[in-house]
Specification:
This protein has helices at residues 26-35, 46-54, 58-68, 74-81, 85-96; strands spanning 22-25, 109-111, 114-117, 125-129, 136-138, 144-145. It is α+β, with helices and mostly antiparallel strands and 161 residues long. A 4-stranded antiparallel beta sheet has the order 3-4-5-6, with no helix packed on it. A two-stranded antiparallel sheet has the order 1-2. Helix 1 (26-35) packs antiparallel against helix 2. It is elongated and about 65 Å long. The two termini are 29 Å apart. Bound molecules: zinc ion (ZN). Residues 14, 16-17, 19, 130, 132-133, 135 line the site of zinc ion (ZN).
Length: 161
């Protein structure tokens, strides 16, 4: 029987062997790395890590703007806050050196699925591959592909997000 990938396949179970492809919470993983002494996260609070992964909430942006910027009127401030989130982020980054955009996309979880890129064929993932049963699926159609792509011996199952 042929299997096909669902839309949210990266965090579901393998349609072929049933193994769990969800690689866990990105925030929890980074907090764990910090607690184990990883230099990149040194001195970062749990909240700093959450902001790094998910970005700032509207309330956090509002509080920052309220404390650090001055406007001629409440209306001017509202006008600033009504801008596209990207424009607000750029302004805060260039003027205050704070990064309010998250570095990851929802659902902020790792996936164990392996993205297979074939050099000379396409600049990006062409196949998704289960790390456990090694079955592969076409990236565009979601259909099973009969291929034989060996898993690199140094493969780590936390590289995809
Ligand atoms: Zn599988």
């Amino acid at each position: 029987m042929s299997t096909k990938l669902s839309d949210n396949f990266q965090h579901e179970t393998c349609p072929n062997c049933g193994s769990n492809w969800d690689g866990g919470s990105i925030i929890e993983e980074f907090i764990r790395q910090r607690d184990e002494g990883n230099q990149f996260w040194k001195d970062k609070t749990d909240d700093d890590i959450r902001k790094y992964v998910e970005g700032w909430t509207d309330d956090e942006i509002l509080a920052f703007v309220d404390q650090n910027m001055s406007f001629d009127s409440e209306e001017e401030m509202q006008k600033f806050l009504m801008q596209d989130r990207k424009d607000i982020s750029w302004h805060l980054y260039s003027n205050f050196n704070v990064k309010v955009q998250g570095s990851y996309s929802p659902p902020y979880r790792f996936s164990r699925v392996i993205g297979v890129e074939i050099q000379g064929m396409y600049d990006g993932v062409s196949y998704w591959k289960c790390p456990d049963c090694e079955k592969t699926w076409n990236r565009w159609t979601g259909e099973e592909e009969i291929t034989s792509i060996p898993t690199h011996p140094n493969y780590s199952d936390r590289i995809n997000s």
